[in-house]
Task: inverse folding
């Protein structure tokens, strides 16, 4: 019997951002690359995001943030991911994140951070190359 | 097989990670899936399954969110399977139903799973029914299934649910649409959502008029009601109707509909198994490609080939 695997991706908006243009563009690009995208909608707590990733059993979590709260929210999310035992999921981030913060975010397990203007093709390739399937 | 046993144990204990992993296995048609489903099958039948269907944008997801809220207030646990379409062009999908229900994502008594239909027709995915079984076996009191935005003929939902709710919104069509066959025939309960909009009463009376034409005297008479999912208006009444329908089913109709469901499923399972084994057989003997070539060259056709294969099978 043949298996029918698809890459499942959660696009999540932690914190108090009130706009999600970028997140939707990323979702759309990954969708068009044949992946299944689950979107959380705006203003999510770390608990909501991690619990959603667990229930949806995604392969990838994409965090989008513009508010500047990434240094507080991201460590919390990564901590919960470990706690729930889903740290085999690939995590990347995007949005407005100062260059000097990227090193610390990578240290807590975020595989890559993409800034504004990243071509969607780069993102698609990144996800495809970093998932097992 | 260790992994499968662990997953089954986890599901039966209501472990969320196990539930999620099991649904993925089924969805991906992994080799362990049939075994797991057949073990879990024994543990199903306790949950009441509510199907929610209706056109895109009629408010299905928002209505479900309000149903979850009220059911939780009453101490019931809830599972949700929300289906959205897969692109026939790229194979990708954007699953957005959950956005409306995120408030319940951290509630331990609620499990929500989004599912792409992976190009299955009929409004559901191939794995939907088994995902419902997983949630049922995990001990959820109520399982709600949301179909893709349904037009006219997406009626697969009947096969997985006990109570079917068709959600409509004012202004989507006149009484001609209401007479058409298909989705308008499957409802146990009609909901005219967005009742705060103009013409809600007109839609309501059109549906009522359509229902009055049903000459059959016996059985369940579908009810029609108005809701405004955004504010929660009408939700208590909707739950009362669901409860009524559940009681009605208990008086015998449930048995009949289960028998129907078992029959359909058995036929499907036989078809699938036999087809799979025949195709595998042909591939192993190296005849598969040759047959395809012959059909392409119009030397024969799929039906004659199928007839011949069946005769051969019968002789054995």
Result:
């Amino acid at each position: 019997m043949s298996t029918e695997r698809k890459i499942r991706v959660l696009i999540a908006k932690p914190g108090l951002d009130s706009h999600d243009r970028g997140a939707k563009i990323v979702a759309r690009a990954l969708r068009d690359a044949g992946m299944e995208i689950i979107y959380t909608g705006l203003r999510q707590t770390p608990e909501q995001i991690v619990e959603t990733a667990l229930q949806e059993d995604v392969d990838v979590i994409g965090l989008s943030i513009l508010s500047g709260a990434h240094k507080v929210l991201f460590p919390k999310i990564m901590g919960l991911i470990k706690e729930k035992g889903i740290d085999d999921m690939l995590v990347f981030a995007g949005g407005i994140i100062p260059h000097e913060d990227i090193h610390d975010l990578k240290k807590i397990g975020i595989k890559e951070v993409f800034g504004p203007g990243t071509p969607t093709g780069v993102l698609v390739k990144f996800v495809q190359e970093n998932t097992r399937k | 097989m260790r992994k499968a046993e662990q997953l089954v144990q986890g599901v039966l204990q209501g472990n969320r990670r196990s539930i999620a992993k099991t649904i993925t296995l089924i969805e991906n048609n992994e080799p362990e899936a049939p075994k797991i489903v057949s073990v879990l099958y024994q543990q199903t039948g306790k949950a009441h399954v509510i199907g929610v269907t209706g056109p895109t944008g009629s408010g299905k997801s928002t209505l479900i969110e309000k149903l979850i809220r009220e059911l939780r207030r009453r101490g019931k646990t809830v599972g949700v399977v929300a289906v959205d379409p897969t692109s026939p062009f790229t194979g990708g999908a954007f699953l957005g139903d959950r956005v409306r229900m995120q408030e319940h994502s951290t509630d331990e008594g609620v499990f929500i799973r989004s599912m792409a239909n992976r190009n299955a027709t009929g409004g559901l995915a191939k794995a939907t029914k088994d995902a419902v079984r997983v949630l049922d076996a995990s001990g959820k009191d109520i399982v709600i299934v949301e179909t893709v935005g349904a037009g006219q003929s997406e009626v697969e939902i009947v096969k997985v649910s006990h109570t079917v709710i068709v959600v409509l919104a004012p202004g989507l069509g006149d009484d001609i649409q209401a007479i058409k066959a298909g989705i308008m025939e499957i409802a146990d309960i009609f909901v005219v959502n967005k009742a705060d909009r103009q013409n809600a009463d007109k839609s309501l009376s059109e549906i009522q008029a359509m229902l009055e034409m049903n000459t059959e005297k016996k059985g369940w008479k579908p009810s029609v009601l108005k809701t405004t999912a955004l504010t929660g208006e009408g939700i208590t009444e909707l739950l009362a109707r669901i409860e009524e329908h559940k009681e009605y089913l208990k008086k015998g109709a449930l048995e009949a509909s289960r028998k129907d469901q078992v029959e359909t499923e058995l036929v499907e399972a036989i078809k699938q198994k036999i087809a799979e084994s025949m195709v595998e057989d042909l591939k192993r003997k190296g005849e598969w490609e040759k047959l395809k070539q012959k059909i392409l060259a119009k030397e024969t056709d799929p039906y004659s080939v199928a007839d011949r294969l069946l005769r051969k099978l019968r002789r054995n």
